[in-house]
């Protein structure tokens, strides 16, 4: 009898969650973008991610009220999502204080997925070696739409360093990896992209003129590596290069504070180009 009640409760909770997702999809569909605009955001998925990121920021159990406030979503919506996550084993509840916290299940799922990544598993040891030899933060990235997504970040072990997170989204025109990825394009495609896209000033050093940026990227391509000098983060310099693996284009950057990178940039560029060349030859199937 009790199991039937629990199953019925879980069924109702799932129905409530599906209604919310459906409503979110309908509200997104009412304002469908033109092809030139960004795709509509699926609000339900955004809210699900907001909940996990709220736990990441708080680093402590949260009551339903605190969680809804931290994730900036309605309490009723939060309740439905929490109920579904709990029934799937992604959250567990505490009685004293009455609060919620993620289980290890999300970590296990993500770890299993990561282990089967076709590129990262083989590239990471070389990225770590590049970090150790350069003594600066090493980043692997790829183009995602008109932005850059960081796929792997191996931070420097020095106390003063450039810090970033896997999954960070960065501009194409001001980040070192973005400039490398733009440098992998044909000149006509590069100039067309720069002419069509906004190039906002991320810092006072960002190159915002399409012609100047195109010339900078093309000159860098002749050198075999690309540079940013405080263009994306003030007082941070970086050097990058692109590589192709199985028809996919990636870019790797070495980034650090200006006072160290200014003197070591040529050496870092040499190490970087050698690493990219080795990766592109050894990882191609």
Structural account:
The protein has 285 residues and is α+β, with helices and mostly antiparallel strands. Helix content is 52%, strand content 18%. The longest helix has 28 residues. It starts with a helix and ends with a helix.
Question: Count the helices. How many?
Answer: 10
**What percent of residues are in strands?**
15-25%
**Please, what is the average pLDDT?**
86
Number of strands: 8
Which sheet architecture does the biggest sheet show?
Answer: 6 strands, antiparallel
> How many whole angstroms does the radius of gyration measure?
23 Å
Could you estimate the helical fraction of the residues in percent?
40-55%
Order of SSEs: HHHHEEHHEEEHHHEEEH
Regions with little confidence, pLDDT below 50 for 5+ residues: 1-40
Widest sheet: strand ordering: 5-4-3-8-7-6
Taking the alpha carbons of the first and last residues, their distance comes to 57 Å
Structural class: alpha+beta
- The dominant shape is elongated
Offer a quick outline of the entry.
By secondary structure, this protein is an alpha+beta fold. It contains ten helices and eight strands.
